[in-house]
Write a structure and sequence with these properties.
The protein has twelve helices and 14 strands. With 342 residues, the protein is α/β, with parallel strands linked by helices. It has one domain: NAD(P)-binding Rossmann-like Domain (Rossmann fold, 3-Layer(aba) Sandwich), CATH 3.40.50.
């Protein structure tokens, strides 16, 4: 298939693009490469896919991978660009769209709300419009566990009400799900939203706990432990996320059933809840170093606990993420040391 992956220079988008190419698909990656975190990490991810960094810096120019047998091209483009995005769709004739581009981060949405509306609302609407006008059969898109907000019932199920988000980031992701439902109903193409749960692993984002903790401990800085450590997360290793996304893309296309207009939501998580202090302990053990901990109160927009019920994913795609924290933490730290030459 020919697949558009937006957010291809991002953490999840890079891994999904890499996996799709390995499986023989033709992938066009799109990213605006903003400066929410160091763009060098984004360009280095693209380099792993054979894209020249200098070419990647130019807007609206499609550049092809220089690696042999790698069907990957990249274009730097903003989803909010209502002129350039339709042109890309009309010229490339995609079969499937996988929208992983978004302004990420719960806490940053409190400081810079406009960025979330531009990317996560305006940009997503533009994606939906391009799918509508270019006969895209299936749109797979990233949602987030943050949509569960103040829900107290554990584990979180996709049938739960998600009417109480506590960050603008979460509100934009819930909005994406509502918008996708509307377009599936009105215009007859399938949409599948994926609620990711605390993704971590090699090439991860520098603003996330795995990266922040590892970097601080190695460099003898205290780590910030919010809610005084009384938090739990359904930490999900990146390879488990990638496998889930690719299965949904491929099985949906290859289904013997007619690809009727439908709307689906799935949790992709490890189906377990790990105490934050146990997560930190796994990092300490791998580094053979004890963290200096700065115990802090809960931050605005945070929740105390997340846990994904993945029964629907198991039933429909025969898939359940299962990478242990110990294995995932070890893989991340090995990558971190190699990348930063430690």
């Amino acid at each position: 298939m020919k697949i558009l992956v937006t957010g291809a220079a991002g953490f999840i988008g890079f891994h999904v693009s890499e996996k799709l190419v390995e499986k023989g698909h033709e992938v066009v990656g799109l990213d605006n490469i903003n400066d929410y975190y160091d763009p060098k990490l984004k360009y280095d991810r693209l380099s792993e896919l054979g894209i020249d960094s200098e070419k990647a810096k130019k807007f609206n120019i499609l550049s092809k991978s220089k690696l042999p047998n790698v069907s990957f091209s990249f274009i730097r483009l903003d989803l909010a660009d209502r002129q350039a995005l339709p042109g890309l769709f009309s010229s490339q004739k995609f079969d499937i769209v996988c929208n992983l581009a978004a302004q990420a981060g719960v806490r940053y949405s409190i400081e810079n709300p406009e960025a979330y509306v531009d990317s996560n609302i305006v940009g997503f609407l533009n994606i939906l419009e391009c799918c509508r006008h270019n006969a895209i059969e299936h749109l797979v898109y990233a949602s987030s566990s943050s949509v569960y907000g103040l829900n107290e019932k554990i584990p979180f199920e996709t049938s739960d009400s998600v009417d109480h988000p506590i960050s603008l980031y979460a509100a934009t992701k819930k909005s994406n799900e509502l918008m996708a439902h509307t377009y599936s109903h009105l215009y007859g193409f399938a949409t599948t939203g994926l609620r990711f749960f605390t993704v971590y692993g090699p090439w991860g984002r520098p603003d996330m706990a795995m990266f922040l903790f590892t970097d601080a401990i190695i460099n003898d800085r205290p780590i910030k432990v919010f809610n005084k450590g009384a938090m739990e997360r359904d930490f999900t290793y990146i390879d488990d996320i990638t496998e889930g996304v690719v299965r949904i893309i491929e099985k949906k296309k290859d289904s013997k059933n007619n690809l009727k207009a439908d709307y689906q939501i799935y949790n992709i998580g490890n189906n377990s809840s790990v105490k934050l202090l146990d997560f930190i302990s796994a990092i300490e053990q791998k580094l053979e170093k004890t963290a200096s901990k700065e115990m802090l109160p809960m931050q605005p927009g945070d929740v105390e606990r997340t846990w994904a019920n993945v029964d629907d994913l198991i039933n429909d795609y025969d898939y359940r993420p299962n990478t242990s924290i110990e294995k995932g933490v070890s893989a991340f730290i090995d990558w971190y040391k190699k990348y930063y030459k430690i």
